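User: Structure tokens for this complex, please. No commentary.
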Amino acid sequence: MTPSGDIGIVTPVQVHFDEPLELQSGKILPEFDLTTETYGVLNADRSNAVLVCHALSGNHHAAGRHDPTDRKPGWWDLHIGPGKAIDTNRFFVVSSNNLGGCDGSTGPNTAQPETGQLWGPDFPQVTVQDWVRAQALLADHFGIATWAAVVGGSLGGMQALHWAAHYPDRVRNCVALAAAPKLTAQNIAFNEIARQAILADPNWFSGHYQREASTPTRGLSLARMVGHLTYMSADGMSDRFGRDISESSDGSQSEDEMVFQVESYLRYQGKQFSTRFDANTYLLMTRALDRFDISEGFGGSLEAAMAATKARMLVVSFSSDWRFSPARSRELVDALLASERPVTYAEIQTDAGHDAFLLDEAHYAELFRAWMAQVTV
Amino acid sequence: MTPSGDIGIVTPVQVHFDEPLELQSGKILPEFDLTTETYGVLNADRSNAVLVCHALSGNHHAAGRHDPTDRKPGWWDLHIGPGKAIDTNRFFVVSSNNLGGCDGSTGPNTAQPETGQLWGPDFPQVTVQDWVRAQALLADHFGIATWAAVVGGSLGGMQALHWAAHYPDRVRNCVALAAAPKLTAQNIAFNEIARQAILADPNWFSGHYQREASTPTRGLSLARMVGHLTYMSADGMSDRFGRDISESSDGSQSEDEMVFQVESYLRYQGKQFSTRFDANTYLLMTRALDRFDISEGFGGSLEAAMAATKARMLVVSFSSDWRFSPARSRELVDALLASERPVTYAEIQTDAGHDAFLLDEAHYAELFRAWMAQVTV
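Assistant:
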């Protein structure tokens, strides 16, 4: 028995697909792997499966620990586990690293089957549609005809929406947290700045940095600083850092000076990220995010896309999220209501910004748990 | 006679100060120059002088043209000239490049008097207080005991506020547009990302890029992209660019691809800026901005700082400005009202974001003109 709420030790598996996958771009992956974790037990009817979709920098490791000494559990451990919103006492949870990712699934730092060389920058651009198609093949692999729920936040929420709109008979419940029907010009601009930071790094080597035994850590670090800044709210940052001065400040203008704590915090976040994430993957993921538009395939009509869904829907936004503001979630809700789809919507009051969907905000956690408790298996 | 509203040809002058200037940091400039333009005629009483303070990337060239073939006039030509808000038929306007600037005033790319070498990264950190002290010496140079008005937007507005609080007897009217009493953690974070972009450029050479016959253009370009993004509103960007695709898009992942128009626009803005601005100056200016706090010298009390002013005040904010939002201007206004200072406040409804103070927004232009018309000379 694990302690209440603790999912314990989990072990990822490689799920291999040896059929070619044609991507939205027309390019073909001759074969691919999805690094996948599952939590809980698939019931005899295979009716209790929940797919968790990860966001930009997430991966398959959503809950539990790989080793008892791991300092941190998976990225959504607060909401996945016994008695939590995604209750592993009831659900069989599937979480895989998306195609193009850098945590084990086929992507820029895995080998091309023909040559044995790393894909690197030659890995084809993937899209939300591609990810969902691969996830559908993963469902087939597990013999899951219909997901009890598909759940995600941010870019993960966009995958959940795509599932609901394009595979309406395979999704009974859909949760889209801190998401949007598509990105705004400002959203795209932030992603573009992050990409340019990577491309400008002298260790970028046109994406062939691994071949050069190099890593564009500064570019990737800068990209993360830009991203991280947009995940926090202005008020949240003021509360946390204010104008407090960092210890090492000496009033000089040297590169190492750290005047305000918010600066050293962001630099630290950037550096940490640059040691764990892949630059080519970052480009692929941000491009996929930029290009996502749930109305694609529905004549550009958001309402038509939402009308195609059959799932019971939960849409949640966070008051201080300025990356995908509550107004963007309400666009989804309005389109669902216009089509008389069953939707629950909540705007959670919080200073935590976009990142709130990852956190243990009290009202959010309760709402999420209560709504998921109504998911029949 | 120049056409109505057109100030015509203007010529900057170098105003030299051979007395040493002790900076707020304690470091001493043995001598310095301020590159300065003036418009209009100083009256016999020297009572009609208006000081225009520039923002982060501005300079002394606020109005008119240096040559009839100049494609663009000075940066605030919309509001300075015959019959405009800062009416050169009435006022003698003084506009200088701030210390540490890169357009002629003593700064990183001017020579150190002792060695003849460029200052480069060794130019001392300057502050708003230093700029205002230098401007006060400039006033002395012109024999101006009291400014009819000190006027500025953004970082320029902060200089105007500093003037009003620290030289109350030398400022009869003060205009602070799109300003704030000090920066928030989020404001600082954006500046820090811009600085990191410069510092990460391989052509940065610890700031000695000129000695290396190099320029950190990519870093500076990226810094500007970050800045520019914060000067525009999300709605303004959506209206202007939406999700329109750039011509050269080919769906590839190459460095040159330009998928969305907002991306190519920002890249263009960045490149343009990197050809005209100096990276060391950018670091100095953003640091000065970060460190500005109008309550400094007043026991950390904004109210005490505003109570020290004697000027008639105009504070203007712009509804879609999220860099220095209307709430930040209201902090100033509340402090002025608490001290029963004479203040006019307006929040202009616009989608133009922070940049609005530079533009010809109808209500703003009218208000600015009407208020300045009440400035006695």
